[in-house]
Amino acid sequence: MTPAIATTLEYLCPTPHRPHTWMYAPPDGQPIENADYTRKAVTIHDARGTATSLAHEGYTLRRAATALDDFHHKENIVQRYYPEMAQLALAVSGASEALVFDHLVRKRQPGTPQAFGRIAGQRPGAAGRVHCDFTAASAQRRLRIELGERAAQLQRYAILNLWRSIRHPVLDAPLAMCDARSVAAGDLIASDIHYPDRTGEIYQLLHNPEHAWSYFPAMTRDEVLIFKQFDSAAAACYTPHAAFEHPSASPDAPPRESIEIRCLLIYA
Ligand code: OGA
Ligand code: FE
């Protein structure tokens, strides 16, 4: 095990307003955001050598090599990589159906990871603000989009991310994971993210000294970090996460390149 890392992560400051962020030039000269964010001290532990599971921490790591070597073409990813990740999601969760609905390829930009990993028009980089990709409401909305009327008959559904390095071992900007059980309901603040074509709802996080942070050092491209975004059958189902600059990375460490898959799980 490598020593724990003392660093900072970006959290939401308490605010009386519902936070929102414009991912493009906001109308009427409004500011990009209506809330403040601040870096808080955290200790990020090495999760290797600790038994982790989706049911407890909300995240886990699996060795799962991929047959895909070129992640730069969307058709390849959808046709060849989605089925691989649906298989893996089923194997790790015991769900009866896995529907991959989204992916994002990132490359770290120079400097401290940006809040959302990009500003208008840029390629997505590492995302340094603590967040959860879905709220209870946006998970439900996604379920409806994927399943339509069938959504009403389900016993249980969940949403997972499957995250992999697509080039080198990740040395410079790993993804830190917060143990789902260390999150209090009041830490999760529903927030709007405005894109040109839609508005998404995510959780921003208020700082809580109970948050238990870990990461998997030097993830290779044969490993997948799997984490829960939502689970209709579990109260501790939100796994906040954020990228951080690794203090031991050499300044010329190759920029992290990664792909994350979002997957809906259905339990019969
Ligand atoms: C994610 C995510 C950030 C990053 O996979 O949901 O927020 O820097 N990733 O990879
Ligand atoms: Fe995320």
Give the radius of gyration: 18 Å
- Count of domains: 1
The largest sheet is: 5 strands, mixed
Bound molecules: N-oxalylglycine, fe (iii) ion
The helix content is 10-25%
Which strands sit side by side, in order, in the main sheet? 1-3-11-8-13
Shape label: globular
Span between termini:
39 Å
**Strand and helix order:** EEEEHEEHEEEEEEEE
CATH structural class? Mainly Beta
* Annotated CATH topology: Jelly Rolls
Number of separate strands: 14
Count of DSSP-assigned helices: 2
In what range is the share of β-strand residues?
A: 25-35%
What is the residue-mean pLDDT, rounded to a whole number? 95
Q: Uncertain regions: pLDDT < 50 for 5+ in a row?
A: none
Supply the CATH architecture: Sandwich
Class computed from helices, strands and strand pairing: mainly beta
Keywords:
268 residues; Jelly Rolls; five-stranded antiparallel sheet; binds N-oxalylglycine; binds fe (iii) ion; globular; single chain; five-stranded mixed sheet; mainly beta; 12% helix
Describe the protein's architecture and organization:
By secondary structure, this protein is mainly beta. The chain has one domain (5-267): Jelly Rolls, CATH 2.60.120. The protein is built from two helices and 14 strands; from the N terminus they run ββββαββαββββββββ. Strands 1-3-11-8-13 form a five-stranded mixed β-sheet, with no helix packed on it. The chain is globular and about 40 Å long. The protein starts with a strand and ends with a strand. The model has no long low-confidence stretch (mean pLDDT 95). N-oxalylglycine is lined by residues 106, 117, 126-127, 133, 161, 163, 175, 241, 243, 258, 260.
